[in-house]
Amino acid sequence: MSLSQPRTKANSCLFCGDALKAPTKCTYCGFKFCDEHVQTENHQCGKTRYAEYVRKSDADSIPNLASGQFLVVCDMCGYRSAIGSLIEFAGEELTQHMQIVGCSGHTYLEEVGDSPQFHSQSVTVKPSPRLVEPVIPSSGQESIVDQLSKLAILKETGTLSDEEFLFIKKEIIKRLK
C-alpha cells in the first residue's frame, strides 16, 4: 500500500485494524482480514461459531455455513423454528432455547435450504409428543415465573412466533401441576 493512500476500513483488517497490502476475505463471513486473522478461529467468525450444532444428515454432506438457512430443532421438547434463518441467527435462537427451556444436549441446527426465497417461507411448527421432563426450580435453576418472563420477551422481540410461544408456555405451566 502506498503512503499516499489513506487507511480506511476497506483496506484494514476487521479484527486487528492493521493496514492490508493484499486483503483476504473470509470464505464464510466475507469480511477482510490480515493473514494472521483470516482463519475463522482467529477472528471469531460468526458463521462458524455454531457449526458444531449442525446435525449431519449423512457423512458426505457439507452444510452451507455462508448462506444456508437453518432451523432450530429440539429432540427433547419437540420445538422447531417457524422459519429458517442464517446460521448466526439460528445459533442465537438455539442458545436462547437451551438457556430458557433447559434442553441442552438435545438441540440442533438443521439445514433447510440456501436460496433467498426460503427465508420468507414459513415452516409449520409441529410439536413432538415427547415433552420436557418437569424441572423443579432449585437454588441453581430459574423459577417458572422467570422462565415465563424471558419467554414473553422472546415473543415481543419476534424471536418466537405466537404458536411457538403458546406451545412453550403450555409446557412451562404444566410443570406447576
Automatic annotation (TrEMBL):
Domain of life: Archaea
Gene3D superfamilies the record matches: AN1-like Zinc finger (4.10.1110.10)
Keyword terms of this UniProt record: Metal-binding, Zinc, Zinc-finger
GO molecular function, one term: zinc ion binding
UniProt domain AN1-type: residue ranges: 13-49
Name of this protein: AN1-type domain-containing protein
Natural source organism: Candidatus Nitrosotenuis cloacae
Lineage, opening ranks: Archaea, Nitrososphaerota, Candidatus Nitrosotenuis
